[in-house]
Each structure stands twice: as C-alpha cells, then as structure tokens.
Specification:
Layout lengths: L4 E2 L6 E2 L2 H12 L4 E2 L6 E2 L2 H12 L4 E2 L6 E2 L2 H12 L4 E2 L6 E2 L2 H11 L5 E3 L6 E3 L8 E2 L6 E2 L2 H8 L18 H12 L4 E2 L6 E2 L2 H12 L4 E2 L6 E2 L2 H26 L3 E2 L6 E2 L2 H12 L4 E2 L6 E2 L2 H8 L4
Length: 311
C-alpha cells in the first residue's frame, strides 16, 4: 500500500517524506535558492528552475492537441481543459463554469461592478472607476479573456473569415495555425525524424517522438517521482493522485459528519453500520452466535473477542 504523508499545517498530502519536508519550508518562510539573473529567491530548486524559463524563453510543456507550448505544467493542464471541454472552476454566486481560474476571476468582477462606480464631486454624475491594471480584455463572442489587447485582436480572427480553411470552413487566429490545420486535409508531413525516418504533420509531434530514441522523460510527477516522455501522459497520471486525494477528503468529511440518527434515543453516528449495531441495544437482538457455547452478541466484534476464550 502506498504511504501518503500529510502536512500538519495545511493538510496537504504528498507521496514521499522528502516532498513533505520540502513543502514544510514554505511554512517556515525559507528561500535558499537565488536566481543568478534577477536575484529573486525561491523555496525549492524546482521553483528556481521553472522561474529560469522566464529568462531563457524555454517552453517545455507542449500541448499534444495543438502546437501551443507553456513554461508551467499547471498552465498546460488549464489549457487542456479547453480541448476536453471541462469547466472545473465554478462561480459560487451564479453557478457559471469556466475552463480556467483566471476566467472565473474576471467573471467575478461582474458581481462587484457596482463597487467600481465613482461619483463626480462637482456635478454628482456617476462615472466608471479608472480601469484597473488587473482587468483583462474580453472577447464578446465567447468567454475567453486576454491580458493584452493585441492577443485579443489575434483571437478575434477565429470568429472572422480572415484565416478560414476553404475545405472545412474552420477559422483560425493566425496564418501559422491555418497552415498547420491544412496539413490535416492534405496529409502532408514535412517534419522527419533523423533517426528512423518517420514523418509528422506537426513539429511538436516530432519533438515528442524523438524522446523515444533519446529516452528523455522531461515531465516529472512531483508526488511520486514518475517520469513521462509526453505531457499528456503526466496529465492522465496526475488524475490518479487527484482521485486518491478526493477519496481521502471524502473519508475525512464523512468522519466529521454524523448523518445517521437513532430514532429511539437521538444518538448520531457517522456510519449506518454503527447505527445498526447501536439499535440492537434497544431491541435486545443478538444475531452473532458462538458455535461452541451458544453465547450470542449484538455486535460482531464482541463475538470475535469472545472466540479467543475457546482458542
């Protein structure tokens, strides 16, 4: 059975004692790793390495469904929700759902819009407050939001005919995206593996394939140290840990809740089996009988203890 280690400060779970000890440094405020470029400090070496990609421009995590690449595995996971149609981020006020937490954050401003209205001191007219730098630019055709206006302009091409595929009518944000898509119709595969000669329609697919020959596994699970050649396999693997944590949280929730109540005396229990055992104290029922001396018990555990007398 796999051992899970729990942080006593925040109740997070980890797959190894080492990762738990590293995590504890956050609560202590220790930041022993310095960036050689900008001197920013970090709690773990992994955080420093991820930060270094800002200076190098490296984008290690590539989407296996399109050619987009990201510096952080978490950003890739959020991006994959777009392809999968999943919307795990819910607004607690109106129950709207979103593919990314950032989209939900922008949406929440709808509910707080009245707080951004200012009254002119001279004429008394109500005016919109000065735009915050945290506000994003929203697409009026779909739910997507962008930090920079040029990014929104590029995205809007999806809703126009500027980069439209003449074969299927699908529209794209850029000429590069359209050119990549058209290969799905033509069957063209311009990217060839220098080792085995296999060809691919997308450069990102060639990158992924090349790791078969090199043995490189750059996508590491931070919980159990497993490594993968493709980011999508890491994403699928992480669902195992998410499932384990959810099951653990559900067990803890049930342990805290006492939803089963005795109709006779009102005593409450966390499990229906406990209520069944308790109810026999009122009914006098003793269904668990010893096959040696004919003694009977209301609870099976008492029968188990009794059987030791005959051993």
């Amino acid at each position: 059975m796999h051992t899970v280690y729990k942080c006593t400060e925040c109740s997070k779970y980890f797959g190894s004692k080492h990762h738990l000890e590293v995590h504890k440094q956050r609560h202590l405020g220790a930041k022993p790793f310095d960036c050689a470029v900008c001197s920013k400090q970090f709690t773990t070496l992994q955080e420093l390495l991820v930060h270094g990609r800002i200076h190098s421009g490296e984008k290690l995590y590539k989407c296996y469904m399109c050619d987009k690449a990201f510096r952080h595995s978490g950003t890739l996971r959020s991006h994959l929700n777009v392809h999968m149609g999943e919307k795990p981020y819910k607004c607690h006020l109106c129950h709207a759902t979103f593919t990314r937490s950032g989209h939900r954050k922008v949406h929440m401003k709808i509910h707080t819009r009245s707080s951004r209205v200012q009254t002119h001191t001279t004429c008394g007219r109500q005016l919109a407050a000065k735009r915050s730098t945290e506000n994003w630019y929203s697409c009026n055709e779909c739910e997507k939001h962008y930090l920079y206006l040029p990014s929104l302009y590029q995205h809007m091409n999806i809703h126009r005919d500027k980069y439209k595929c003449p074969l299927c009518g699908r529209c794209f944000a850029s000429s590069h995206d359209l050119a990549t898509h058209r290969r799905s119709h033509s069957g063209e595969k311009p990217f060839e593996c220098s080792v085995c000669g296999k060809r691919f329609g997308r450069r990102s697919h060639l990158y992924e394939h090349s790791r078969i020959h090199s043995g490189e596994k750059p996508f590491k699970c931070l919980l159990c140290d497993k490594q993968f050649t493709v980011s999508s396999n890491l994403y699928k693997h992480m669902a195992v840990h998410v499932g384990m944590q959810r099951q653990s949280e559900e067990r803890q929730r049930r342990a805290r809740e006492k939803t089963y109540q005795c109709p006779v005396c009102g005593k409450q229990f966390t499990r229906s089996s406990h209520l069944s055992d308790h109810s026999r104290t009122h009914s006098g029922e003793k269904p668990f009988k010893c096959n040696v001396c004919d003694r009977a018990f209301a609870v099976s555990s008492n029968l188990t203890k009794h059987m030791r007398v005959h051993m």
